[in-house]
Each structure stands twice: as structure tokens, then as C-alpha cells.
Amino acid sequence: MATIFMPRLRGIAYHLRMPSSESSASAAFSAFAAPQHAVLACIRPDGGAAGTVAAAARLAALAGAPWHAVLVENAATRRLGEAARLAALELLRAAQAQGAVTAVLEGRDAAAAVAAYAVRHGCATVVLARARPAAPWRTPFARRLTRAAAWLDVVEIAAAGPRAAPPAPGAGTQPPAPRRYLAAAGASLATALVALPLLPLLDVANVAMLFLLTVVLVAIRLGRGPAVAATLVGFCALVLAAPRRQYDVSEFKYAVALAVMLAVGLITARLTSDLREQAESATGREARTRALYEFARALSVALMQEQVFDITRRFLARSFDARAALLLPDDAGRLQPPAPEADPQARAPVLSVLDMAAAQWAFDHGAPAGAGSATLPSNPWLYLPLLAPMRSRGVLAVRVPDVAALLVPERRELLDAFAALAAIALERVHYVDVAQDAVVRMEGERLRNSLLAALSHDLRTPLTGLVGLSESLTLSRPRLAAAQLELANALRDEARRMSTLVANLLDMARIQSGGVKLNLQWQVVEETIGSALRACRWQLGARGVATDIPRGLPLVRFDATLLERVLCNLLENAGKYTPPGARVTLAARRDTDELVVAVLDDGPGLPAGREDALFEKFVRGHAESPIAGVGLGLAICRAIVDAHGGRMRAFNLDAGGACFELRLPLGEPPAAPEADLEPEAGPISTQPDPA
Amino acid sequence: MTPDTAAPVALIVEDEPQIRRFVRMALEGEGWQVHQSETLKRGLIDAGTRTPDLIILDLGLPDGDGLQLIRDVRGWSPVPIIVLSARIDEADKITALDAGADDYLTKPFGIGELLARVRAALRRQHKAAGEASARSAFGRVEVDLHKRTVQRDGQPVHLTPTEYKLLTVLIANSGRVVTAPQLLREVWGPSNADNGHYVRIYMGHLRQKLEDDPAQPRHLLTETAVGYRLQP
């Protein structure tokens, strides 16, 4: 992660007291709320702000304090036009790159908004550019600020350059200024041409009304300056054309007319520009809402991740002219770089290792990173975490041609909304996948079970016939001659062996395919050992069998049928690989939190060094053994014990012979029945039964 | 009818001809008169018309589940039913036994095993027809159901009330598999259906007190994952 923070560390070099362990800039700064010594650069779009940022940075460095930069927006600043706004936002971005915490404040009263921010973030000093108020009768901003927060130190610095002339309202959508003034004058002159010949017929006041109408129209169409121009031109025309006699008498009348015309022109221009701005912002809002709506609708039909990717890319390109990529994490939570696009037209983004690291940071912290955010603002991409209700689904990487545009709050809000919608769509797609997987798995399981059941039936049925018929032969009357009887006996034994083998194969197939549902019950191990011995005693022939099971062993949770198969396989092995006179012992004991069951013999033991290999499928102690078998028994044993969360191993005993040992974890056994708590497994009583 | 009307009648309901063949041979060797049905439908008819003394029934028939026949026959007859099951699933055996089957054999099975089960089923039926004996014995153990005493080698054995009740249920079904759920129901009551380990713990106690080698019991046998059998 160190490399990611390199640019960031350069940015915060000013903050000597900033705890280095803090990864989130805002979290770090909130820690400074108490000392109340942060520096706040107040950027105003009406000029001179470049020096503000530099001065605040310098001050903060000297004081070793954190610093903030804020931009206040309201109707008044918006009137300055989009260019001024973007310039201010660019400054804000520059401040961010130098390590400032930045914010765009919204408020009618800019001074109150800045004061509130200063309180919230513990800023003691405010740096702002010296600026003349917009009108002589307005209070300068600095004074308003000190009035709002008397304890603030306000540092005024000289404006960096000549104050930019405030552009006329709606400058972007209207013809350049000179032409508008000419048009205004022209309109007044045209009015004069029409109205002045009527002067003999109409009263002066009525003609003045015509001029007023023109001024209003000019104010609406062309703005404030042209309205003033139209007033003056119209007034001059009126005065010049008016009959001398009236001029003498009613000088005062004309002054009133002029003032009214000016006032109406200015007010109308103001109202119109306000209205226009509201209309524009309403249109903008509507466009954003529609973009969101269309995006949501497009996403709602996406059923695959690729569709979500494609739709997101398309809409971001349309709404922001941005290149975008969705980065998804792998199972370990590492984001994967976007797959190379098959279509070269798709403008597939290329993300460097550093970019991926920034994206990973955004993913891990669930906070935006990169351009326009508080972390790594010098990165050209903006990384938005895709936060869905269940968990973070990935990162949306966006690259816009103009990075400053990312600082515009409306655009960031829209981007965040896009990211949230994409996150929800990805989550939905994820659960669609999960549901489909579940259906496929269920179907697969059903198929496998029916296949195994059919196979099991089809194999066992003829074997049952074979075992039964060969046994009938051995029992047939009149009794067979000795040679034939021997044949019939061999036939029966082989058929039985074959059916054990088939059972093992089918069990192996079931366990391997994950189709075994363990029937876990709290069992008494002595009972399972007993039933295994009863079922498989015949495999041991004349060998002696002993059991060594201490009383009072705890209950253990296992599948009795499967464990019986394990023990049977082990007993069968003992019967196959030990000499007829061998002795086989079944032992059980408790070893701390495990139950140990072992099958021991005093036979020739296991081939040295191959003890563990015996548990592999189709591996046998001696490859070319005359003893029948395919090497599945122990593999099944291990698979069953593994499924119980246990362990299995084989080793040679010091005294000679082999030991197969399985260990099952002891759980929390359920309570024993409460009725008649007699000393467990007590000795046989000699007293008469009281019952 | 035929001269040997006195011979007991067995009905085999099984779709596999080879299995039918050796089961028939084995039973005929024991003096049974054997009828065979290949399908469930035929079996249901034969069970009604032939009035068999024994039914051997395959659970997996091509035209339906053998369970249906058990339930149907139990509606009007206590005739012993032995189930042949190729299924691995022990739950099927429990269902069949709880539906009224007397015993089961898992394929593949030996003839000795088959005949032993048949004899046990008949013996039990005859006993049920006659007067229930107050005294019961297996191995070296004697139980007097009237006096409620248990003796081993002539020495009294102390059993707790629960152990004694468990033993009496097994004795009442001597030679026959009693499913674990049934034992739980009869000894501990219907509210203990989830406490399967109760039966296992108490069977362990009984074996400790009544068997020579509790790890290799000869009378109180476990039918793994199905239930228990008292083998006289």
C-alpha cells in the first residue's frame, strides 16, 4: 500500500502533526477539531482566489496545522457563469492536490456557511482574497464573516490580478456583448422611429410607455447591460424628438420617466436572469433524473454481469462523456483488471498497477478514491466503491476528459447514484447466478442419485440371484459329490465377495460425487463395533477377535452405517492379509477431544514406508498380490472418516502387526435421559429388583 | 384341492425370476407350498385369494411400492411379512417395519439367513396365537414377566424401571426387529422422538448387565440404523 500513498504523502507534507496511521484524510482532520487551529482557504468565484490557496497552504505549513479549502455556491455565484465556476472548482482541486480537505458549500449567506464550516472543522484562521463588494452599499465579505464569527482570524490577501469583469448573465447562450449592446440600441432606435412620429397624436407619457416596453423586452432577451443601453438610447431619442415647449415645462417629468425606465429595465433583467437560471437548473435536474431513470430501466433487464458492464459504460459515456470500467473482486477480495475488450471500438480502459492499487483501496475502505476525491486526487481516474446492501460488489472506475467537472456537486451526486444503481444491479445478477447454480446443482444431484440408485439396483439384483442360487446348489438334495460341493462353495464365496466389491464401488462413487448425506446421530461406539463384528465376522475365519473398550466412553456423533462399513473394510483387510492363526483386536479409547478407534493385528504388518499410500484409491500394499481386491477399501474408509471431520492413519506396531486407527472429534453430547439416574453401567446387582 | 393342503402356503412377490427361483427352492425344501407374483397388482390379488401363511415381498416392484401391499394386507391379516430390500437407505426399512412388516433382508442375502427369519416369524405368530408366556428366556437370562424379575445364571439382576421396560418391549417382539423410533415411543413416550441416543445408551446398559461380552452381543443385537432385535 505504501506506493499508493506516495502522492498523497506529498500532498499532506504540510500537516506535520497528522497521525501517519490514519488512512482516511477526513478522519484524520476530524481529529483536529479540538485544537481549533486549522487554516481555511475561502475560494470565491468572483476572482482573486489563486493567491488564497497558496497563502493558506503557506500559513498552514508554518503553523504545522491542517488546512481546508471551501467554495461557496449560491444563486449569486452561479450568476457569474460556468467558466468562473469551473475555474474556482479547478482551484479547489489544486488545493486538494496540495493536501487540503475540500468542500463545496451551499448557502444563500456565504459568510454564515463559511463560519459554520469553520466551527465544524476547527478552523481558526480564514484566508480570503480582498475583494470589493459587488455594490458600494454592500458589506464586504470579510466584514460579514467576522460579524458571523467574531473569534475567527480573517486574513485578507491581495487579489492576484485585476478583478475579472463579471460576465453578463447567460453569457454562454447569448451572442457576445458588443453585438448585444448594438442590438439593444437598435431596438430603441427602431422604437423611436415608430413612436416618435406618433408623438403629436399621443401623450409623451404614452410614447414613453412604448420605450418602456422595448426596455422590458431587451432586458428579457439581452440582459441587464443592454437594457440600460436601450433605456439611455430611448431616453435620448425621446428628449431630442420631444417638442421644446414641453421640454421646458416638464424637465422633471423626463427625469422620472428615465428613472422608471432604468429601474424597470434592471429589475426585469434581474428577474429574467433568475428565472432563466431556475429554468436551466430545472432542465439540468430533469436531464439528470431522466439519465438515472433510463439507466435504472436499462439495468433492470440485465441478467448477466457483462450486460451490467456494457450498460454502465454506455450510460457513463453518454452522460459524462466518460470512459468507465467496472472492476470486480475475485474470491480473495482482490480486484481484477478489466478484461481486454474484443471490440477495439469499445475504448477499453487501461489501468496501471498504481491505478489498480487505488481502486483496491477504494474497494477495501468503501470510500471513493482518485480524481475529485479526498484520497489520491492526482490520479486521473475516479474510483467509486459499488456499495450494495449485502456487501461491496466492486469498484466503478470513471475517467472524464475534464477532471474539474468531477468537483461539481450535481455531477458527483449523479455519478454516485450511477454507482449505487450499478452496485444493486450487480448484486441482483449475483443472486440470479446463485439461484441458477442452486437449480443446476439440485438437478445434477437428482440425476446422480437416480443414476446411482439404478446402477445399484441393476448390479445388486443379479448378484443376489447369484449368491442365492449358488447357495441353493450347496444345499441341494441329494447332496452334491465332494468335488462339485467344493465348486459350489467357491462360487458362493466369490459371489459374496463380488457383492462386497460392488457395494464398495457404489459407496465410493456416492462419496466422491458428494452425494452422501451423513445420517449423524449420537452413537455408542461399542454398539457399532459390535454390529460391525457381527456383520463381518465371517471374513476373519478362524482368527481370534478381541475387543478393548473401556466403560464410560462419551457419545460420538457419526453415521453408524458408514462407520460400520469402515470397520468392516478394516476387518476384511485383516482377514485377507494376516495368517489364519492371527489375532485381531478392536480397541476404542478417548484421547483428549477425540475418540480413537483402532483395528490391530499381530500379522506381518504393512509394507514399510507405504503406510499412507495405502489410503489412495486403487493402491495396494503389493501390486501383484495373489489376494483378491482392487484397493478401494481403505480409500473409502478415509473418505468416510474425512466426511466426519476425522482423521485416519495406519502404522506398524512395535510388537509387530499392523494398526489402522481412526480419530473422530468429540462434540458436545446431548443430555442423557433424566429418568432413573442409576450409576452408569453399574455392576450386576445381587439384590432383588425393587421394581 | 391338492392332497398336500396341510402344507403351509407362502407367497413370493418379487419381479426378479432368479431371486424368485432360489427363494422358492429354499422354501419348498422346507415343505412350503409356494405361490409367486411378479407384480404388486398380482401380489395384492394373490394375498387375498391364496390366504398365505407367509409373504415374502420385494419393496422395489416395477408397478409400485411394496409398502402399499403391507398396508393393505395389515388391514385384514396378521400374516408374517418379510421384506426384501435392495435399497441402501435404512429409512425405507424403518418405514416398512413401522407399516407392519415383520422383518427384512437386505439383498444380497443367504438362504440360511432367509430360513432363520422365516422360522422366527412363524414361531412368533404361533406364540401370539397361543397364550402369552409369563416366563421368557434367552441365553443364560430368564425373565419373569409376572413377578417382574430378571435372573442371569440364576442370580437376580437389578434393572432400573426404564431398562426393564425396554427389555419387555424387546421380549414382546422376540426375534423380530423393533425400530428405534418404536422403542422410543413405547418406552419414553411420543414426546421423545428426537432423542434417539436414549435407546442406544439404555441398550448399552442392558448389554452390560445381560450379555457375556457387551461388545460382541449374542442376544441383544443391533440392526444398524434400523433398530434392535432380541435373538433368543
Q: How would you characterize the overall build of this protein?
A:
The complex is a heterodimer of chains A (691) and B (232). Chain A is of the alpha/beta class and 691 residues long. Chain A is 51% helix and 14% strand. Chain A has 19 helices and 16 strands. Chain A has helices spanning 2-11, 25-30, 49-63, 75-78, 82-97, 110-120, 141-148, 177-195, 204-222, 224-241, 244-249, 251-300, 305-320, 353-365, 409-475, 482-512, 525-540, 560-577, 633-643, and strands at residues 38-43, 67-73, 101-106, 123-129, 153-157, 323-327, 369-370, 382-387, 392-399, 521-523, 544-548, 556-558, 583-591, 594-601, 647-652, 658-665. In chain A, helix 3 packs parallel to helix 5 (82-97), helix 9 (204-222) runs parallel beside helix 12 (251-300) and helix 10 packs antiparallel against helix 12. Chain B has helices at 17-29, 40-49, 66-74, 90-99, 111-129, 161-172, 180-188, 196-210, and strands at 9-13, 33-37, 54-58, 60-61, 64-65, 81-85, 103-106, 135-138, 141-144, 149-152, 155-156, 177-179, 220-223, 227-230. In chain B, helix 1 (17-29) links the parallel strand 1 and strand 2. The relative contact order of chain B is 0.10. The model of chain B has no long low-confidence stretch (mean pLDDT 87). Chains A and B meet through helix 15, helix 16, strand 10, helix 17 and helix 18 of A and helix 1, strand 10, strand 11, helix 6 and helix 8 of B.
pLDDT < 50 runs, ≥5 residues of chain B: none
Strand order of the largest sheet of chain B: 2-1-3-6-7
Tally of DSSP β-strands of chain B: 14
The DSSP helix count of chain B reads: 8
State the major sheet of chain B. Answer: 5 strands, parallel
Mean pLDDT metric of chain B: 87
Termini gap of chain A: 77 Å
Secondary-structure element pattern of chain B, one letter each: EHEHEEEHEHEHEEEEHEHHEE
General form of chain B? globular
Helix content of chain B: 40-55%
The span between the termini of chain B is 38 Å
**Overall 3D shape of chain A:** elongated
In quaternary terms, these chains amount to heterodimer
| Low-pLDDT segments, ≥5 res of chain A | 1-34, 161-173, 677-691
Question: How many strand segments of chain A?
Answer: 16
